[in-house]
Amino acid sequence: MEEYINGTIAPRIRGDGGWIEFVSFEDNVLSVVFRGECSKCQILDRCISWIEDMVKKDLGLEIKIEARRVKPFFWDNN
Predict the structure, then answer these.
(1) Of 17, 32, 47, 78, which is least surrounded by CB within 10 A?
(2) Is the pLDDT of residue 68 over 70?
(3) What is the reported pTM?
């Protein structure tokens, strides 16, 4: 799954200024971190649904995605 995310999904997301990082895949739950433009995207839920559909189409797996957004360090107010 990590290879699929890094090799297939990540390049497409980077094309829009976003960034996805693989965290883990266990019991058909994919954990990822979204950064870059994804960290402030208002329609990230559509992207998550698209990724679930792509995994089903390409790998034949029904998965659930647990996503976390991480803002760039320079957006912190600390």
Answers:
(1) 78
(2) yes
(3) 0.85
